[in-house]
Design brief:
The protein is α/β, with parallel strands linked by helices. The chain is built from 14 helices and four strands. Helix content is 55%, strand content 9%. The C terminus is likely disordered.
Length: 275
């Protein structure tokens, strides 16, 4: 069974939410992939200046037990990203340096969550409605119509105009307020209560539980689709290997040959099942 180590080092809230979304992607494709989540504390230990080549060593250790290591970071406005790349010790630079070290193997990947994790959540506005009302509205025509009127076509295009400007996170805060008021109109006259209930980053993992992942929602954010494609490819390559095994073309006990075949297929970037 293929195994992936996901590292979302900026926030453990994001880590749990991404893990939830990743498992939904795997379920969509009917795959069987084990997903292990790295935590912020472990990443911080790895990049500690006292720990020479710590991140590379940590990745090396992960690759002993997992077929892929995938890093994911929030990626907000272009101006903010350019500023981060100019900072030598920024997380994105540290991660990209390590990815380059393993470039030949193709087993370490980095995916930016374009317009932040909130843009991934916003691919399913109806799911967000379900989360903030704690109700299943999938068959409720009133809520379906409301969600359709608010659903953005491409959530990765919810861009901040400038560094520190409004982006997907602010968009989700506003959306949560609208949903809460629709659910309970009395909150319109209770700004304090409304503010206490509106979206906060700590809620991301709970919201992720309600988000529907299918071909339509994946198509609403290219960075999410790229991440999904990576998971899909890995499972597809292992599926091919299982066929080789069943035909007796490879030694089932040969771990080296197993890895060699999977990596060969992965590097070729063969898309077995179009998304």
């Amino acid at each position: 069974m293929p195994s992936i180590y996901l590292w979302v080092p900026e926030s453990d809230y994001d880590r749990t939410a991404v893990g939830c979304i990743a498992n939904k992607i795997v379920a969509l494709y009917g795959g069987n992939i084990t997903i292990k989540l790295g935590d912020k504390q472990g990443f911080n230990r790895a990049i500690d200046p006292k720990n020479q080549d710590g991140l590379k060593k940590a990745v090396d250790s992960c690759l002993k037990n997992h077929n892929l290591v995938i890093f994911l970071l929030d990626s907000d406005g272009t101006q903010s990203q350019n500023q981060r790349r100019r900072e030598k010790k920024s997380l994105v630079n540290k991660i990209e340096e390590v990815v380059k070290l393993f470039e030949g193997e193709g087993r370490v990947k980095y995916f930016p969550m374009v317009q932040e994790l909130e843009a991934w959540l916003l691919v399913d506005y109806l799911g967000i409605c379900c989360s903030f009302t704690n109700n299943d509205h999938r068959n409720n025509q009133e809520w379906i119509k409301f969600a359709k009127s608010k659903q953005r076509g491409q959530t990765d295009l919810i861009a901040e105009a400038e560094s520190g400007g409004k982006g997907a996170k602010e968009f989700l805060v506003k959306a949560s307020r609208e949903i809460l008021i629709k659910h309970n109109p009395n909150l319109r006259d209770k700004p304090k209560n409304l503010k206490e209930s509106q979206y906060e980053e700590s809620q991301s993992s709970e919201i992720a539980k309600y988000i529907k992942i299918d071909y339509e929602t994946l198509g609403r954010n290219k960075s999410l689709l790229d991440f999904a494609t990576c998971l899909h490819q890995l499972y597809a390559y292992f599926f091919i290997f299982s066929i080789y095994e069943s035909l007796g073309l490879v030694d089932i006990n040969s771990a080296h040959l197993h890895t060699k075949l999977v990596l060969f297929l992965y590097k070729k970037s063969i898309f077995l099942y179009p998304i």
